[in-house]
Amino acid sequence: MIWETLPNYDALSQRAASILFDAIRNDPRAVLGLPTGRTPMGMYDRMIAECSRQYHCFREVTTFNLDEYVGIPREHPGSYCAFMKHHLFDHVDLDPARTHIPDGMAADPDAECARYERRIATAGGLDLTFLGLGSNGHIAFNEPGTPFDWHTRVVALTPSTRKANESLFAGGDIPTRAITMGIGTILESRRIVLLAGGKNKHDAIARLQSGEQSIEFPASALWSHEDVLVLVDRASV
Ligand code: GLP
Q: Is 80 exceeded by the pLDDT of residue 182?
């Protein structure tokens, strides 16, 4: 695991965007794993700005999002589908047929999870996956206690995760379940970049840095992967 500490959130976002750009420049058919949340927003902003100056950045890139709420329609402003459209997809030349997000409205969510795994495999597997970090150490929606070899499945969200994401559901019911890539799915990605910034990630970063490997701290699974870069800002360390 390689660590880089950037001076602030802007520098972290810039560094993450340049890694993403290099990856799709080296392999225009790259298969990316993409996160939602506040942390990657700066990276996406920079991708949009850069793509407006270049031609056909993403035309042959394939993306798979890490997770999606169950029971929330794609059009709902709190859905991760709406998040991705707003923060990236509507502004770059990604082919909608190559962007994938689990269908949280699927009639059979378990079948949807199996289908999602098959789609990742058919695309050739994830080349580069970006992750955020929950303050309790979760990655995607894999909460503490998740075995490291589990794959895409339906999960119940913990009260703390629901609270952390409640602003997206102002005045409405906060979802109780989600479909998430498993830690096993994430570990199968050839490269992983974890982004974490801000004071509220300090404890989680310190725990990850300690080298402890425990299913009680999901991000610690990343220690078993051979190509992980962790980008943090000074406020979080
Ligand atoms: C949610 C997402 C995670 C994300 C986490 C941290 O729970 N499912 O994928 O990493 O929030 O979000 P933020 O970047 O807003 O702190």
A: yes
**What pLDDT was estimated at residue 56?**
63
- Across the beta sheet with 153-156, the strand order is 67-69, 177-180, 153-156
Question: Is the CB of residue 161 below 6 angstroms from any atom belonging to ligand 1?
Answer: yes
Task: Kindly tell me the sign of the dihedral angle through the C-alpha atoms of 106, 179, 176, 172.
Answer: negative
Nearest-5° angle of CA 236, CA 43, CA 175? 80
Q: What's the pLDDT tens digit per position in 18-67? A: 999 999 999 999 999 999 999 999 999 999 998 877 666 899 999 999 99
- Show the tokens assigned to 82: 């709406």
Name the percent of the chain lying above pLDDT 70. 99
- State the Cα–Cα distance between residues 84 and 116, nearest whole angstrom: 17
- Average model confidence (pLDDT) across the chain: 95
- What average pLDDT does range 123-148 have in this prediction? 96
Inform me whether the pLDDT recorded for 210 exceeds 70. Answer: yes
Residues annotated catalytic, as ranges:
67, 136, 138, 143
Alpha helices in the chain (DSSP H): 9-26, 41-51, 80-87, 109-122, 159-164, 183-187, 202-209
121-130 average pLDDT score: 98
Give yes or no for residue 141 CB within 6 A of ligand 1. Answer: yes
In this structure, the residue with its CA closest to atom 11 of ligand 1 is 37
Q: Between the CA atoms of 67, 70, 73 and 74, what dihedral angle is there, to the nearest 10 degrees?
A: 10
